[in-house]
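Listing S7. Sequence submitted for prediction.
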Amino acid sequence: MPMITTGSLAKVGRKTAVLLASGDSRRSANVTCWPAQRALEEDLRGAFKSAGWSLLRGSPEAASTDEPHGFISSQAMGREVFARLDRRAPLVIALAAWQYSHHVLMGLVRHKGPILLAANWSGRWPGLVGLLNLRASLTKAGVEHSVIWSEDFAGKPGRRLIKEWCATGRVEHDTPHVHRIGPDDLSKSVRKTGERLAAELADRPAIMGVFDEGCMGMYNAIIPDERLHRVGVFKERLSQSALYAAMLAVPDKEADAARAWLERRGMTFVTGPREATDLTDRQVREQLKMYIAAARLADDFGCDAIGIQYQQGLKDLCAASDLAEGLLNASDRPPITHRGRVVRKGRPILHFNEVDECAGLDAILTERAWGALKIPCDNTLHDLRWSDRDRSGTVDGEVWVFEISGAAPATHFQGGYAGAVSERQPPMYFRLGGGTLKGVSKPGEVVWSRVWVEGDASGGARLHMDIGRCKAVALPPAETARRWRETTPQWPVMHASLYGITRDQMMARHQSNHIQVAYAPTPQLADRAAAIKASMALALGLRVHACGENAQGRSLRGAFGKV
């Protein structure tokens, strides 16, 4: 592929777009994902050629012998790459892997030309996950952009989208499933309950414990303090070094007692002797010390929810945080004593994975809305990882793979802890190991949601919430195994069938790689819980959008007025 030469300020010709690839900060991940990225770029090159355009690569395919790949792998590298680019050139960000948005955000927020984010459609190579994260970051920054995705850009649908962008500088997607709602869309009892909950939060604000902000460059996951204050939530900024110090103060016997509790419940730890590739007993003990230490710090600081950075921060110092996160999010978990009492007995200690503050605010709203109905509020975020048709024929249509690194509570799983397994995180991401909390989510009615930030050119920011309904479905073991093979087999999974929303409609709208989920006992209670949460969010000043339908096929906005 033709490439911009080092040191030149590229003035691209007519019908030419500049292609860039944002990558991970970890060399191992970039090297592993590079073949998939090259394949996507070749696919895009052919599709642009069919539109009469050419692609000019904006950075080398191999930066050096130490970095034998073509990803932009740091913010500093991104700064140098964008310094050579014509700011008015059409720009394509090709995404075949997870990426750190801050590597390219500096250049994208100052770019004057049309921007296109183009992702593959694959579970194994999660470019679509990277696209959703970068897209949400640009939305927060108030940067205009377009998004497209395809299993094969050589096909007619993919080429049609590229021709549209080449001709107009934009791609428009239909989102008829999205309906902004107001108080008049809610029943009187729902509106009253939501307003009461909002008033309670305003009178006694919540504290969100943040163990270092900005995990993996997720600019979209940071809520500006002044916006958060208006909804009655304040940040307690904590350090991961304080968490590590608290871990060192936890005796071995306490961590071992937590493991014994889990094993009595039937949980399995798949351990081995090799630190580099196996989950070891030492790693499990370290993770359980993190669980205990995090709970005690949350108690000390009066935090209503906490977020640990997950992949960054402590990854070079200790085992991964995933097992700890999943345990914290469960109402049924190993007891932790602190200052002569059990910490939050029978309640989750809300944890927002990857310090995603939007998910943290969502979890706080969920706990209060579900509490008003006296139903369990155990909730978690997942990655909106991939979607495919159910090849077993059990479910008609697309079934999403909601999958996260281990932060899902076992209370969501078929069989609870007896259905839970801890397997070592892939060494590509976690040199020091650590296990997941893996299981298959039980069938049932689910409310999904996403809090997100929309910015504008003046630097203003507004909080939004999308909320919808889906069903967690049971698939045969062979189909579950196939989906795990196509994604990350060590991670917990929810098979989700969305109500009234197609795959492409979800992609066209969703403003994050994350999606929040919580169960309700019946379809009717799920609708009512969602409506109360929406009412509370409206009363707090968020713009709320009801997405799709309920289980009976009724518009969710219409259903909110009947529950």
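Caption to Listing S7: primary sequence and predicted structure tokens for the chain studied. The chain has 16 helices and 21 strands. The domain at 16-168 is CATH 3.40.50.10940 (Rossmann fold).
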